[in-house]
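Task: complex structure prediction.
Instruction: return structure tokens for all chains below.
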Amino acid sequence: MSKTVIPIGPFHPLLEEAESFKIHVDGETVTDVEVDIGYMHRGHEFISERKTFTQSIYLVERICGICSTSHPLAFVHAVEDVDGTEIPTRAAYIRTLVGELERIHSHLLWLGLAGHFIGYDTLWMWAWRYREPVLELFEKISGNRNHYGMMRVGGVARDVRPEDIPEIAKTLDMIEKKMDMIAKAAADDPVLRTRLKGVGVLSRQAAVDYCAVGPTARASGVPIDVRKDEPKDAYGLVDFKAVVLENGDVYDKLVVRVLEIVESVKIVRQCLKKLETEPGPILNDVKEITAGEGIGRYEAPRGEVFHYVRTDGSNRPLRHKVRAPSYVNIPTCSVSCKGIPLADALITLASVDPCYCCTERAVSLVDRRGEPLSVDVLELSRRKTELLRRDIYG
Amino acid sequence: MAETEGLLKDLAGKIGRIVEKPGRLYFEVADENILEVAGYLFRKMGCRLSTATAMEMYRGLEVLYQFSHDASGRYFCPRVVITDREVPKMHSIAPVVKGAEWIEREMAELFGITFEGHPFPERLLTRDNDKVPSRPLRLRRLE
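Output:
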């Protein structure tokens, strides 16, 4: 067993969030990876139990900036699962449309970061250039580039305006063309192939053992996709295929994501067609949530987002559990990084598209001396807002 | 539905109160049987552990494991009720289901539940902190 340990993080120029990897190496070869999380605690589960169901939608939206549709969508699925609440067809198409647009922008974001991590900044510039129009679409649809505030228990908050549909379709045409280009480049480009093929392999068995989800599992030949396995919203009404590859290396994870963007474009097109021709309500009035429990999930760009809600008949959840996809995908790094050169470890760690904001939602409050604080999180938040207000307005 | 019938038949005598909803089966399991039930769901039925949720309820602490049967889109959720609030403990399923390691460590940290037989019973979120509040998600109910 080697004794050299290389720490990456918790604050490192190459990591956009605070996370800590302790990489054990023997010469150049990685022998073990220790993952330490706990730098992004914000207490969402704790706060959620003090918020009404509608307030919690805005709260869970802020768990992650990238998956800001996936978390609220999984949460409203969970609340709707308590009573078996139905939603209008038009709302189902809008939910699916927004969810798939989010997948497109999230996969493009990862593609850019992956290119950057392997020193191939052309890919980064391509991907982020084509991501920008998608964010502009979001601004048109919801008024925001992130945190769209679209979801409600029983439907959606905002309709897609008919006059916006041609522009969305036009952007999709552009994205599809460029994705073809990137897919072909990925297949032909010697840089990407030599740098990523056979690197950081996650075997099918390991993916099953670690309960991996999303592109991480699908690139290893595990055919799981919530959109197919438990089709909610309009996923049962649109035609698309789940992309599953076999090799489990970083290259396959990249190809899965690129092909998924193409599938997402297809889904959004079908949704737009329906939204053009089928008017109708977008929100069912939900008067109360009875006592019970509900499970809601959604296939976020990184994999299954899981929300569990226990209710007691009041307007607040008794218990709200959140499990983001990175929480189960990050531990797979300890398998996929073993035995590879150190230089390949970073892209392998990044290949699961880790999101630490999602992974850590819990909180422990201590003062400067490390003593437990008795004050509650909401009170702290209020105090912080008050300080900011004083700072701005005097 | 065949999966539910098979499960109820094969695990007869080990399953307590059942609550069935469309696509969901919640059932109570005694602590001494949870390892066997988890093994059956994970290995025999090919379920995937989505996560586990601990809750503090009137009758004690509940630990609910949420297993997803992806082939049918159904959820099978065994629930263990721990009545000892002061020193709560139960068997870990991590020796059978590797994917349960992190979530059991998190539940141990936030609810103070000891998972016996866990391969790496360290704190998950506050490993580097010397002084951390004990059982933070239970504080509000103990007040």
